[in-house]
Amino acid sequence: MPTITLIEFNGREHQIEAETGKSLMQNAMDNMVPGIDADCGGACACGTCHCFISDDWHEAAGSTDAMEESMLGMRPDRDDSSRLSCQIDVSEAMNGMVVRLPEFQM
Amino acid sequence: MNKIADLPHPLTTPLENIDVSDPRLLEQDAWRPYFARLREEDPVHYQADSPFGPFWSVTRFEDIVAVDSNHQDFSSEPAIVIGDMVEDMTVEMFIAMDPPKHDTQRRAVQPVVAPQNLAQMESLIRSRVVEILDNLPVGETFDWVERVSINLTTQMLATLFNFPFEERGKLTYWSDVAAGSPEIAGGDVTQEERIPALMECLETFTRLWHERKGQEGGGFDLISLLQRDPNTADLPDRPMEFLGNILLLIVGGNDTTRNSATGGVLALNQNPGEYDKLRADHGLIPGMVSEIIRWQTPLAHMRRTATRDLEFQGKQIKKGDKVVMWYLSGNRDETAIDKADEFIIDRANPRHHISFGFGVHRCMGNRLAEMQLRILWEEIMQRFHFVEVMDEPERVRSNFVRGYANLPVRVHPR
């Protein structure tokens, strides 16, 4: 069970014991972390589970595919560390990972 | 164009006779059993013959998400409604473009509806809502559509475009005309009315564009944003694209919120237990807003066009075939949404609905729509114990806009 820290835009931290084999989005939802909407339920189709992966953890979190890129491309607040959390499958390699949540989802 | 024969019996007619593009299904509020049967018996349904030509209907939630998020196989060009544009007035809008052109145009206007910008607009919107509600007549029956829903959305549009406030009624008119032709969606606006109206819209916005161009600074309205973005700075040089994108923003922000603002009143009247829940706890409003948008599904469908021969859920779809995603049906799919036919204002997961679409074309203004409806209901509940529906509404004839021409109501102050 890797420990992952999610930080809301207002700075509030949530440390969760994440379940491997589930997405980061699902883990955040299961732990009632506010700031992720996940309207489409994890289909990479709405962009409302946007998050920022801290620098040291990009490799562990994996890379984006074309679909995720096109959804991220519509976010005005997108940056180099942007990911859709539904597209990140939690693994043991993510133990200690820090994830920041955006000011808004849209 | 519209058939004169009675609607076929939804349960006994052969499947091939079920033509869900018939605009009377929404006008007569008769659509539910037809879509329920398709979801059950033939979820990806081929309609060989309709006034709009042959088309596929995709009716289940998960299948709609799959089509909507696959823009490579299912193109938004040339049109996103069942009917094609008539040839003498082919406007171009980014909702009917594929990436990458879609992406650049959409990015130019997206910031205006980003939540930070919306937060700055909230107090202005609230003050306008308050004025509308405080001027409603008490003790007499009036039309909620005209007095509240249209008024609210028209004022919002004028704000977004920084459009001359006293002329704002034109925005509503252009929206109705643009979305209401029989060829496109089974409505009843004639070409004789449509073309001059749309030309007037183009001329007006071209004039506004040039007036605003000379101004110092530059505001955060949609016209100024388009002017500042290099990809759209010369948009008026391409008049049909300019008109198309203006119309898209008008229609997108008009019919949809207008009909959800009406639909919510109707839904609460049809479900008095839910109205009681709301009276007891105004904190339910944000979730209720999502539920209203699901329940109403103000746009009944979006269309795609297959870019290649492919198999989808066992059906052979040919390149060039029209593929219609029925959001109205997906939002009633019991396999994706618990008790989908019921209106429940405190659902566990109310945002999981399909009204905004999915994929790169997902509704850009969804947060604006939610904010408008949230403020509307917060202010309604401050003032009125009951917005009472006095008679059945008159519904719009269309297979695209699921809307109301009127809704007679009375308001009962707290």
Could you provide a short overview of the structure?
Chain A has 106 residues and is α+β, with helices and mostly antiparallel strands. Helix content of chain A is 17%, strand content 19%. Chain A has one domain: Ubiquitin-like (UB roll), CATH 3.10.20.
What does this structure look like?
The complex is a heterodimer of chains A (106) and B (414). With 106 residues, chain A is α+β, with helices and mostly antiparallel strands. Chain A has a single domain, classed as Beta-grasp domain (Ubiquitin-like (UB roll)), CATH 3.10.20. In chain A, 17% of the residues lie in helices and 19% in strands. Chain A has a five-stranded mixed β-sheet with strand order 2-1-5-3-4. In chain A, strand 1 (3-7) and strand 2 form a beta hairpin. The longest helix of chain A has 7 residues, at 24-30. The model of chain A has no long low-confidence stretch (mean pLDDT 95). Chain B has a single domain (15-413), classed as Cytochrome p450 (Orthogonal Bundle). Chain B has 16 helices and twelve strands. Chain B has helices spanning 24-27, 32-41, 61-68, 101-109, 115-134, 144-161, 169-179, 182-185, 191-213, 222-228, 239-252, 255-270, 272-280, 285-296, 327-330, 366-383; strands spanning 44-47, 55-58, 74-75, 142-143, 301-306, 310-312, 315-317, 322-326, 384-389, 394-395, 404-406, 408-413. The longest helix of chain B has 23 residues, at 191-213. The chains are: A alpha+beta (106), B alpha+beta (414). The interface between A and B is medium-sized, with 21 and 25 residues.
